[in-house]
Amino acid sequence: MTATEDIGECMPLNVASRSSSPTCGMSEDGEDDASLRGILNEIRDFRRDNKQQLAEIKQELHKTNDRLAEAETRIDEAETALQAMSTLVKRLSQRQADMEAKLIDQEGRARRDNIRIYGIPEDAEGNNVTSFLENLLKEPLGFPPDTELKIERAHRATVPKPTGTHLKPRSIIAKFASYRMKEEVIRRAWQKREVFYNNTRFYIDHDYPSAILKRRVEYVEAKKILKERKTKFQTPYPARLRVFYNDGTRLYQSATEATEDMASRGFPVTIIPAPDGPDERETELLSTWQVAGRRRVGAAITPDRAPQKKKASQTQFKEKLQEFRRDPHPE
Question: What fold does the segment set 112-207 form as a domain?
Fold first, then answer.
């Protein structure tokens, strides 16, 4: 075989290889283009879905902002009403306290001609309480037999009658026609210190309103300690305590004040806590209410506050969404 034949035989192979090479390249490029088009379509679909979802989110945010603005407006109105009600409650509470003080004063004045007698056994008075008291008070208190005490009416305290003999008998209330005679009876009873009926000791005191009597009872322990220490004291109306110490006289306005000072002086007395009713606590809570988020002058509300807060909320949401936004110019 010659060199020419060898070349002829080899040429078809080379031509074939050269002719098939472009076909293979075109096939590979087509596949790449199809793949790119698929990716682009997916990106477009993804962006379209994102736009739709963002539009829905914006719509929901807009509705939420509207609801927030409405809620803030209603909260503002509620706070304004609360401030007005707080002021009204304080006024009404003060007015109620004033009315109660006047009522207690009127009740005390209505009872100033009365005395209350403790310790007389039940049914000892019989059917005529007035005559019984006339005879009861004259001899022990040293009144002349012909003295007229001028007791208008008398009766037992209006509480259920005790059924057991070990229970304390009900007190007797007597009204005098003369205030001076009533005061004379009280004065003589205090001078005597001890008065008896059939060997049973009884006590005579003013007829106080229940509210004042409750406050005066709080001094019982303090007065007992003062008696043991032989310290002179008085209990002025309505519910005070005047103590004559060696270093001077003190007038206490409440049992809390009295027991605190007596304890500081070394008296073995239990300190009575100051009364703190539910109304006082509720009033204190109302007085400490502070409106959050703005300053008030009186109860005035800034009219454009809600739109401003709405705009601020929208700005905050936009800033948060910026974190999820794609960078159009990546590095």
Answer: Alpha-Beta Plaits (3.30.70)
CA atoms within 13 A on the CB side of 258: 28
250 backbone dihedrals φ, ψ, rounded to 5°: -120, 140
Contact 206, 173 (CB under 8 A): no
pLDDT by residue (tens digit) across 72-127?
999 999 998 998 998 999 999 999 999 999 999 999 999 999 999 999 999 999 89
CA dist 250 and 160 (Å) reads 40
Q: Residue ranges per domain, the chain? A: 112-207
The length of the chain is 331
* CB 153, CB 113: distance < 8 Å: no
Q: Which residues have C-beta within 8 Å of that of residue 286, sequence separation ≥ 6?
A: 86, 89, 90
Which residue type is seen at 278?
Answer: P
Tokens 């100051």 label which residue? 274
Nearest alpha-carbon partner for 305 in 81, 84, 68, 82: 68
Cα–Cα distance measured from residue 236 to residue 44, given in angstroms and rounded to the nearest whole number: 96
